[in-house]
Amino acid sequence: MAKKELKKVVLVVSKGNLDEAYPPLMIATGAATMGAEVHMFFTFYGINILKKKGGADSLKLSPVGNPAMPKPDFSPFQIPNIISALPGMTDIATWMMKRKIKQTGIMSIPELLKSAQEMGVKFWACTPTMKLMGIEEEDLIPTSGCIGVAGFLDMAADADVTLFI
């Protein structure tokens, strides 16, 4: 099968947990490396990734209701899901995941954001989400701008790939 050249990739980023921030940023940087024009539209909790305060450095990994969580290094057994609801488990899971990320040499979310911007990936903040959550443009890291649904649809209309993540 012939490989299609990617000219434009548009990603909708709607989730703001640590583990959910990686896929869109890795896809974006991968597409940019392949020479594609890449746009990321941050909406609902995904907009938290763009916040200056309480943003990319503060993303958490929630173990609650996440049966895909791997067993911890210190235990030969999978921890029962009910234990993930105990106070402090989100902080422990986040610490363990960040440690694993560092050990494996994967970029952190702040590093991926910086890398994506250096590669020319465009970050767009969703204006309805900003209004809903009381977020001002100055609360965000530098972006390409703030757009609504019409702006997003116009941007996505001629994309080769559009993904909702």
Question: What do you see in this structure?
Answer:
The chain is of the alpha/beta class. It has one domain: Hypothetical Protein Ychn, Chain: A (3-Layer(aba) Sandwich). The protein is built from five helices and five strands, in the order E-H-E-H-H-E-H-E-H-E. The protein has a five-stranded parallel sheet, sandwiched between helices. Helix 1 packs parallel to helix 3. The longest helix has 16 residues. The protein is globular and about 45 Å long. The model has no long low-confidence stretch (mean pLDDT 88).
Number of helices: 5
Query: The biggest beta sheet, please?
Result: 5 strands, parallel
* Highest-level CATH class: Alpha Beta
Number of strands: 5
Provide the descriptors you would attach to this structure in a database record.
165 residues, alpha/beta, Hypothetical Protein Ychn, Chain: A, five-stranded parallel beta sheet, 5 helices, globular
Short description:
The protein is of the alpha/beta class. Helices cover 35% and strands 15% of the residues.
Write the layout of secondary structure elements.
Elements: E1 8-13, H1 18-33, E2 37-42, H2 89-104, H3 109-118, E3 122-126, H4 127-133, E4 145-147, H5 149-156, E5 161-164
Parallel strand pairs: 1-2, 1-5, 2-3, 3-4
Helix pairs in contact: 1-3
